[in-house]
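Supplementary notes for students who missed Thursday's class. We covered one full example, reproduced here. Read the sequence, then the structure, then the short commentary at the end.
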Amino acid sequence: MPSLGRNRSAEPSLAAKPEDRLYSSRFKSRPRGPGRRGAFSPLTRRILYVNAVALCLLAAGLLYLDEYRDSLIASETEALRVQGELFAAALGEGAVTTDAAAVQEFRSDIVSGMVRRLVQTTKTRARLFATNGALIADSQDLLRSGRLVVIEDLPPPERESVLELTLRFFYHIIAMLVPDEKQLPVFVDRGDVSLDDFAEAERALRGEPAEALRQTPAGQLVISVGVPVQRYKKVLGVLVLTKGGAEIEHNLFEVRTTILQVFAGAFGITVLLSIYLASTIARPIKRLSSVAEAVRRQQGGRMEIPDLTARGDEIGDLSGALKDMTEALWLRMDAIESFAADVAHEIKNPLTSLRSAVETAARVKDPEQQKRLMSIIMADVKRLDRLISDISDASRLDAELSRAESEPVDIGRILETLVDVHQSSTEDGGQRMVLHLHSNRLMVSGMEGRIVQVLRNLIGNAISFSPPDGVIELSARMEGSEIVILIEDDGPGIPENKLTGIFDRFYSDRPEGEDFGNHSGLGLSISRQIVEAHGGRIYAENRRNEEGATSGARFVVRLPAI
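Structure (token representation):
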């Protein structure tokens, strides 16, 4: 049984609108493109910046945490105190004499030499003060000349490598940019120092060792320890040991330069890994962007989106989605082209007939012939009107389906309403309509108006091909996650070679006696378009009796249930 029409391409139709062309024009006018961003893409730079900043913060934290420096100073101070206690004990035993009156005092003939010899193997300066504050001995006072010899450290004899010089350069720059927050008192080593210049010495006079930290005017650290010199628990003087912090600064410099070397290596590896990571992300995205831009501008004909699904990540998913979207766009463009050709063909036929009838009517004088020609003209006009209305509906359908919000739709209620409408409008003895609902809940998600349109088209098709006393059966049931709707008639059925062709656009083969022009051949095409937009399927098949002969047609609609 031939029926209402459907497009052979099975793709939704869409007509280009003027506003769409205007939008496309505005869209194309925007200057953009992936090839304007230099050697590194913004994504590459962003990844590089994030990784580099994190590494720099870690290195800065290691460089400027003072725990290691404080531990070095504490250990050096403790060593200097222990050294001072040993030296003080040695002076108390070897450089103190007791006279006849039991008065204890330092032996001036040996105390200076003993002080010099005690610190000879160290980098320490020793000063011995009496309890009255007078300077008794100084390790830098040679031969009691009264002239102090100021000792300065000579530079190392070996030459530093280029790497060491570079590291030292950057180290000093960083040290200047981030000054030390701990401000120490400035110590100026004068030749006429006294006990009052050393607060730790004053505390040592009370019998307890004391230490102090100072810095030179050049900013170099100076460690000082005051230790009481005692004999028989009597404080005879104070030994003050001072030592520069060059060794501490050297050790700290070695540690920090090692950190800088590790940082430089880690930074280089981070840059390489960041570039590699960015290339695995930015480069395929750039490829996809370039091809998508070419597709938008329609450059180079039909462009293929790179297939990156083998990556197995989000970029692969993106390429697959873009590829599917592009294929859908090409199919949509093909469908538009085919639709335009079909529309031109379908409109051309009645126009040709209409033009021929009008030209003939101008020459015919016979009233009967003129009457027949006018009936032909009216039929063609009616056909054109019906065709244009259906074409307009089909052209708006895609946009409407894409913009509309879905809502719950009760299939059972719709079928009951359609049956009631038919029964109320059918005279006695006419076609009967029977409804079978095999479930109490038949709900789908979609546009109720469009679903009603599909069911009315199918019911109208069944009415057209059923005999006057025929029975049209409607049924709905649940099958798994789908709702299955059946519309069956008692008509002649559908030729086996037309079971799919009846859904082609503008396919129309009407029953005998039906007025010409009442159908455009788009009913079933629109119905399938609506059903597929709702995620369902629609197809036709023939009914069979017990002998296997065709007893009518059956249309099946399957929609996802909710």
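Commentary. The chain is about 50% helix and 15% strand. The longest helix spans residues 246-297. If anything here is unclear, bring it to office hours.
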